[in-house]
Design a protein that fits this description.
The chain is α/β, with parallel strands linked by helices. It has eleven helices and 17 strands. The two termini are 19 Å apart. The structure holds NADP nicotinamide-adenine-dinucleotide phosphate and zinc ion (2 copies). One zinc ion binds at residues 41, 43, 63, 89, 159.
């Protein structure tokens, strides 16, 4: 079995460090990938520090993976050696439940297999993610990546891109809609770009005054400092849809009251502690909805990658070396990311 190099958390309170492990040789349906870049999602930090519970250590995070195919199994028809490909948050699912059959593998009734910290059907152990030089994945969970786009900027599309694209599509965002995006981090900056490309008028809500100019450059038509009550009041009852990407518990009512009649706010952030419950009256008063959304299915992820290639959309990234990962986590906690860290896997060397 091929040896893999990576970075792992050995415990919730330990920094990530160099770790060697084995990947399987490709089975007949598998694609082996040499990883070029891996994005750093806030979910990686939540899980490496066991903030959601259930993390199995050692944990090799990373689910925004792009690279080149190095070997394929004999039944692989979709990919060839040398192809540029991506892997997102899932590497398998039951494939037989109603949700899998409908292309909603992320909502698999039997639980999808996460790219990391998932139950590995092959080894019986736990899956290891993309903070690594190589990975072996079933062809049905591998995505085609356009060579037209900057590859490092594509990596974050595999989670931040699809997690924002899917709800924008599901709630039918289009020309003429006023869409709020809460938080300008990895997910938020993709939401701004995608909602804009879908034709919406975009209002970005941020706690960071230093991000105002960037938000406008990224495509926001309006930027609101969410701590400023007067600025918030000016948007009451005006938004058709809000995508809330914040990774920490906060008052949802301040945003729900910005929705117009029949408007929806969808949560995609998964804070370690839940938000305080919103006031029922704010929902009733304008028939508003509060919803949630989880990544996206494989077919929709491919649709999103193709949409981004067509519209020239990638993530704004800050490239880091593998050794810088612990510092990157600390900066992410301070909302100091512009707007996604991406690990250059060429910097991961045997120790
Ligand atoms: P991120 O890059 O750290 O961005 C989060 C942004 O939220 C920050 O940049 C900041 O933006 C804002 N924020 C942070 N703390 C805040 C606070 N205390 N109050 C108000 N705003 C705050 O994180 P990310 O990678 O985009 O991920 C965001 C969340 O989505 C995480 O919880 C992650 O686990 C989750 N996630 C969910 C899914 C899903 O399928 N649903 C998929 C991926 C990630 P400003 O500086 O602009 O205020
Ligand atoms: Zn993620
Ligand atoms: Zn299923």
């Amino acid at each position: 079995m091929p040896k893999a190099l990576g970075f792992a958390a050995q415990a919730a309170d330990k920094p990530l460090e160099y770790f060697e492990f084995e990947r399987r040789d490709p089975t007949e349906n598998d694609v082996e990938i040499e990883i070029a870049y891996c994005g750093v999602c806030h979910s990686d930090l939540h899980q490496a520090r066991n903030e959601w519970g259930g993390t199995v250590f050692p944990c090799v995070p990373g689910h925004e993976i792009v690279g080149k195919v190095t070997r394929v199994g004999k039944k692989v028809t979709k990919y060839q050696v040398g192809d540029t490909v991506g892997v997102g948050c899932m590497v398998d699912s039951c494939r037989t439940c109603a949700n899998c059959e409908d292309g909603y593998e992320q909502y698999c009734d039997n639980g999808f297999v996460g790219t990391y910290n998932g139950e590995d059907k092959h080894s019986g152990g736990v899956t290891f993610g993309g903070y690594s030089n190589r990975i072996t994945v079933d062809q049905d969970f591998v995505l085609k990546v356009s060579d037209k786009l900057d590859l490092a900027g594509v990596a974050p599309l595999l989670c931040a891109g699809i997690t924002t694209y899917s709800p924008l599509r599901h709630w039918g965002v289009r020309d003429g809609h006023k869409v709020g995006v809460v938080g300008l981090g990895g997910l938020g900056h993709m939401a701004v770009k995608l909602a804009k490309a879908m034709g919406a008028e975009v209002v970005l809500f941020t706690t960071s005054p230093s991000k105002v100019d960037d938000a406008k450059r990224l495509g926001a038509d309006h930027v609101v400092i969410s701590k400023d009550e007067e600025q918030m009041k000016a948007w009451r009852n005006r938004l058709d849809f809000i995508l809330n990407t914040v990774a920490a518990p906060h008052d949802l009512d301040t945003y729900l009251t910005l929705l117009r009649l029949n408007g929806t706010m969808t949560l995609v952030g998964v804070p370690a502690e839940s938000h305080p419950s919103p006031a029922v009256y704010n929902l009733i008063a304008k028939r508003r909805s509060l919803a949630g959304s989880l990544i996206g299915g494989i077919a929709e992820t491919q649709e999103m990658l193709d949409f981004c290639a067509e519209h020239g959309i990638t993530s704004d990234i800050e490239m880091i070396a593998m050794d810088d990962i612990n510092e990157a986590y600390e900066r992410m906690l301070k909302s100091d990311v512009k707007y996604r860290f991406v690990i250059d896997m060429a910097t991961l060397k045997q120790k």
